[in-house]
Write a structure and sequence with these properties.
This protein is of the alpha/beta class. Helix content is 52%, strand content 10%. The protein is built from 17 helices and 13 strands. A four-stranded mixed sheet has the order 1-7-6-5. Strands 10-9-8-11 form a four-stranded mixed sheet, sandwiched between helices. β6 and β7 form a beta hairpin. The N and C termini lie far apart (54 Å).
Amino acid sequence: MQSQTKIFSRLVRDYMRTSPVAVPADTDVENLLGCMAAAKATSALVVDRDGRLTGIITEQDITRRVALRCTGTESVRAVMTTPVETVAADDYLYAAIARMRRFDWRHMPVVDAEDKPVGTIVLDDALAVAAEQTIWQIDRISHEGTLDGLREIKAAQVDVAADLFSDHVPAPEIQALLTDINRDLHRRVVETSVAAMRDEGLGDPPVSFAVIIMGSGGRGENYLFPDQDNGFILDDYPDAEHGRIDTYFIELAERMTRDLDIIGFPLCNGYVMATNPLWRKTRRQWRDQLQLWGQRRSTVAIQLSDIFFDFVGACGRTDFALELRQHAATLFSGNPAYLSEMAHEVHDQGVALGWFGRFVTETEKPEHKGEINLKHAGTMPLVSNIRLLALRHGVPATSTLKRIAALHQAGVLSDDEEDYLSGAYRHISHLLLREQIADFRASRTVGNYVHPDTLSEREKDILVDSLRAIDALRKRMHAEFTGDVF
């Protein structure tokens, strides 16, 4: 029997109806109805001259608007529903189900990166994939947008992650799902804050903007309780308008970070949040900041840029984030002096492996004595060194596994290196996620520590091999980027 929790790892593209009925906006209603009848379609999409989606016509629209008020000669523009909520082909199927159920929709268009329709999701088709108990879980992680509702989503994440883990879904896939839910929570918090500010007379955002998420959220590698690492990219505006415009975004940042903290994203101890002007800049200022980091090459500059490089657009004008990422890839791939300084910095991130393959465990913190910090001495050195390689070779991906795959495809990593390093990431992520779920259910503090005694002999052997592979990568990177042998 196939596991029903697999719904959470399935994508829209696998269940959408392709070749949707799409008509120009100046098509008359009579012709539209003929097209829908010929295709036996229950909806039709309306596109502009460039093929971009502008509206949708459904059976309900025909019943409520066309049948009662139209002669058939009117253009579909007069009766279509607009604006249209859409979903991407690579979005999770559960997210499409959740949105359609929340807004009582039967159809949702699927669009590509240029907003051109590539298919349609029909609620009945999607629901046929999910079992009744799974629908309950979907509803829990797509709760209404109140703070209490969003807090419930954070709590429900643990249950969904545990169910997926029990069904042997690989840890990186669970991390990707957790990240997707968390990005949606960011989007909904921002939308709620913008609407509240509008209702309070503060107006709409004075310029377009993107919310970016950094760290594990940018890489798609969230565990159960990540803290906040966020920022804003604002559209460029005249310097004379700074006081007025930045005042608005200071208020938005304060509301966003406050509400994220309330629903379960702790404030960042390092103040890597949009409330800090360092992480709230215009497009031009961000480009200047990257240039400055590349020129200064100080420890502080390296550390700040290292935080930044895994960023991704979470909501708003995500094209601003893509634009900046392309700029960063070009800028730093051609800056060997900067990359050398970064290599010196990340070389200090050692692995939890000592002489004769013995684990290096915690000695300073009594509550974790004898345990291994699998983040700081496991995934972190792997993530940092793979990021370094990705920067040098202009790899745009942010996910560690995708970076490894891209570097392997480019011939930078050998077959064995790709196999060992991707396996190391998967194994350590599996151990960490399992421990976090167990800690949460036992009402212990959820963190990054795992005791070797909780591992099987096989898991210990694989962990030793994983840490050795990561350490070999560290040494290779240090030698290649700095010229130092030790």
